[in-house]
Specification:
The structure holds 2 protein chains of 2 kinds.
Chain A lengths: L4 E8 L13 H4 L27 H4 L5 E3 L12 H9 L3 E4 L4 H9 L4 E3 L4 H5 L8 E5 L4 E4 L4 E4 L5 H9 L9
Parallel strand pairs in A: 1-2, 2-3, 3-4
Antiparallel strand pairs in A: 1-5, 5-6, 6-7
Chain B lengths: L4 H7 L11 E5 L2 E5 L3 H12 L10 E4 L9 H17 L2 E3 L6 H8 L7 E4 L13 E4 L2 H10 L1 E5 L3 E7 L8 H12 L8 E5 L1 H4 L3 H9 L8 E3 L32 E6 L6 E3 L7 E3 L10 E5 H4 L2 H11 L9 E5 L3 H9 L2 H8 L2 E2 L20 E4 L13 E4 L2 H10 L9
Parallel strand pairs in B: 2-3, 2-5, 3-4, 5-6, 8-9, 8-11, 9-10, 14-15, 14-17, 15-16, 17-18
Antiparallel strand pairs in B: 1-7, 12-13
The chains are: A alpha/beta, B alpha/beta.
Amino acid sequence: MRSQILRGRVWVLAWPDGRLIEDIDTDQIFHNSHLHITEISQMGAYALGNLEGWKDFPQKAKPGDILVAGRNFGAGSSRQQAVDCFVALGVKGIMAPSFSAIYFRNAVNAGFPVLRSEGLERPAAEGLLRSGDEIEIDLSSGRGRNVTRNESISFEPMSAIQAEIYEAGNVFRLKRS
Amino acid sequence: MAKTVIEKIIQAHSREDVSAGRIVWMDLDVRSARDFGGPNVVKNYEREYGGAALDDPARTVFTFDLCAPACTLKYADNQQACRVFARKRGVRVYDVDQGIGSHVLMEEGLARPGGTAVGTDSHMNILGAIGCFGQGMGDIDITFAFRMGKTWFEVPESVNVVLKGNPSPRATAKDLALFLCLKLGTSKIALRSAEFYGPAVRALDLAGRITLCSMITEMAGIIGFIPEEIVNPGKSAAAFASAGEPPVAADPDARYADTIEVNVDGLEPQIAVPPSPNTVKPVSEARGVRIDSGFIGSCTNGRIEDLAAAAAVLRGRKIRPGVMLKVVPATRRVYEDILSTGILKTLFESGAIVLNPGCGGCAEGHAGLTGKGEVEISTGNRNFPGKQGKGSVYLASPVTVAASCVKGEIVSPGEI
């Protein structure tokens, strides 16, 4: 069984006023000039490499970290690298009010937790969810909390297929297909 | 139960009961990979499946369009890895000479009305223009599709988008698409299938439908369909194997998550200003911005109709000295058409650089990038920061781009 509990330090992709950055596209996450890279281990160095203010993310990120972003995260291209670059850094999952369809699938298929939560915008804007906070979330229940600030967090539980693929590790290891 | 267009297409490819919100397994008529994504697919396939056979090599293709021909050693290696895999497995390669994969699928009849197709191209939903359910996917998804011939899919809800009125004769399909990027933003049809109705879309030829449906991705939609009858197929129809087949229609009582009316009456030419395809205004409001370069092409505006419209503006005129105009036909077939109709000569004589077919000019690749401080006006579909290099990019129609390149600054097409 893969762990249903994720606990880690959070990085909140927000503007200086706390509003979550929306529509972060795959060229900002993993620029197309690095698309020739096919080794996952080499992709981490370019994560968020074209997102103003976050270019040093690969140096700052630690395995176990969790990312929070604004709505429509992963807009744009179909590149798997935009998911794999976070996997390479050991990031444990991404939470956002919504994801682009392709990005969401890519993450699901890779067994990488992507969690939809409408309830992130307000705490981020009000300073109740900030980079550096420690959060703990339960994938199976859709509930969690900000340990640092003792605030609760809720999100959409994974769909059956998402949970199945997560459990299998990735879509290739899915038994029922 | 009555079904929307997307529900009908998926139902015809699934043994499960299909309705919005359900996750079902769907058979794929075509699965493709480009020179971007393709090498990862090959690597994934060999790692995960080893020598196991593809579900159906005849329904599996590679299309090389991103870096064509390879301009870096890495792309050369990647393309060659795909070719070797393809030869070994009996898969067809539409190589670097053939042009944009999604367009090749339509020309070759691999994508047809009512069909399903996936590929490593986020604009694969452009196939909605001919009533085919196309979907861009990442390399893990495509590897799985190569092996299994199917995929899991959450059937999206559908939105009815009704366009009211008739745009001005100066507005092209691109202006309509940009205006919809403004009006629908990235939330109104997000993660949904859009069906477009009304006289403004009924009037669109195939090339115009391609332009509109190519920008659904920028509206965060799953796909867009135009179920309206094609009154005037246009010149591109001759290139499409499925031309003449009617678009898929929704059932009369189909359920929609929303109906959105957009007034396009008297619509004038539009332009997307940096930083996104959704920051759109009338061209007249961006008038006078000095430009360094122009680009005409991409899956959005790379058909014969687009290049002919630009050539009509450029005929007998010269691109302003110091301005560079790059033209990239969508496919080899389009190249052949501009060659035989004299459009190539007109473009050449105006001072334009005409490159070989592909995705260059929109993605980094064979048509170069923009440098820091460079201002480009482009017929592409994305102008996100950094996408085409360090410059700032405006998105407009082929005629607006052509006119602006003559003037050296952004102008409405009627102004020169």
